[in-house]
From TrEMBL:
<dbReference type="Pfam" id="PF00701">
    <property type="entry name" value="DHDPS"/>
</dbReference>
<protein>
    <recommendedName>
        <fullName>4-hydroxy-tetrahydrodipicolinate synthase</fullName>
        <ecNumber>4.3.3.7</ecNumber>
    </recommendedName>
</protein>
<keyword id="KW-0457">Lysine biosynthesis</keyword>
<feature type="site" description="Part of a proton relay during catalysis">
    <location>
        <position position="48"/>
    </location>
</feature>
<dbReference type="GO" id="GO:0019877">
    <property type="term" value="P:diaminopimelate biosynthetic process"/>
</dbReference>
<keyword id="KW-0220">Diaminopimelate biosynthesis</keyword>
<comment type="pathway">
    <text>Amino-acid biosynthesis; L-lysine biosynthesis via DAP pathway; (S)-tetrahydrodipicolinate from L-aspartate: step 3/4.</text>
</comment>
<keyword id="KW-0456">Lyase</keyword>
<dbReference type="InterPro" id="IPR013785">
    <property type="entry name" value="Aldolase_TIM"/>
</dbReference>
<feature type="active site" description="Schiff-base intermediate with substrate">
    <location>
        <position position="166"/>
    </location>
</feature>
<comment type="similarity">
    <text>Belongs to the DapA family.</text>
</comment>
<dbReference type="GO" id="GO:0008840">
    <property type="term" value="F:4-hydroxy-tetrahydrodipicolinate synthase activity"/>
</dbReference>
<feature type="active site" description="Proton donor/acceptor">
    <location>
        <position position="137"/>
    </location>
</feature>
<dbReference type="InterPro" id="IPR020624">
    <property type="entry name" value="Schiff_base-form_aldolases_CS"/>
</dbReference>
<keyword id="KW-0963">Cytoplasm</keyword>
<dbReference type="GO" id="GO:0005829">
    <property type="term" value="C:cytosol"/>
</dbReference>
<comment type="subunit">
    <text>Homotetramer; dimer of dimers.</text>
</comment>
Amino acid sequence: MTYEEFRGVHTALITPFTATGEVDEVALARLVEYQIGSGISGLVPCGTTGESPTLTHPEHDRVIELVIEYAAGRVPVIAGTGSNATSEAIRLSLHAEQAGADAVLLVNPYYNKPTQKGLYLHFKAIAEAISLPCILYNIKGRTGVNLETETLTALARDCHNIVAVKEASGDLNQMKDVIAHRRHGFRVLSGDDNMVLDLIEAGGDGVISVASNLFPRLMSTMVAQALAGNRDGSRALGAQLDEFFHSCFLETNPIPIKTAMAMCGWCNEEFRLPMCSLEKEEHRLRLQAAVDKLKSVAPEAFRA
């Protein structure tokens, strides 16, 4: 896999469930086809948006295997294999490699709140256990710890297969600092849809996206225009999508995006506890309005 393939829009896939709570393999296959047919750059199963914390290990392995099978080499599959336990992350990453994934996404260890030394040793141990490219996922709001730029650059220097970062710190200055200090070829991807244009204009490379679950064509076009230097075109699309971006975080991700997908007929509105349906009716109404607003520009998203 070349570094170039880590540019653009990679969708952080939802995991659809049946009405009885199992992984909905038919809906998952349909989603993968929709993504690929809409020009997405890559697929990321079993991330936060895929409700990975509530998947059993056999389910986690199965979802990754299925997405690899359904994608059939047409786009890269970046398997979410991070964990708060290094040994568990290594096991998940080894399975992804054996299953045929193109790369792994490794979230900061959560709840433990390791030191920067601990983060360095954690990610280094995983990178050394596999040969796949590794994308680190920095999201302090979910994990309670920030991967500092000095630690990240040390990992990229010392581990040849640590090749990118998904930056979801929400701090554009930190993202710019990463860009300024990265080695040649190292990719910086946004973890926030509403910040991707700022990131690209600062020298970044794309996004691992929540919104592209429902609107992959619009997201792909927006990011492609930004990467090509068409600021006016990308910003115009960004303005159209902005309300939906914010609606996706009215409540905890992935509750709003999965609800929006269900509104449009892509999946059931089924979650794994402690994730549950939207708490506030006003949020449902705002989400529905944001979705409906895009019907004229993305009719392909509306199956129902």
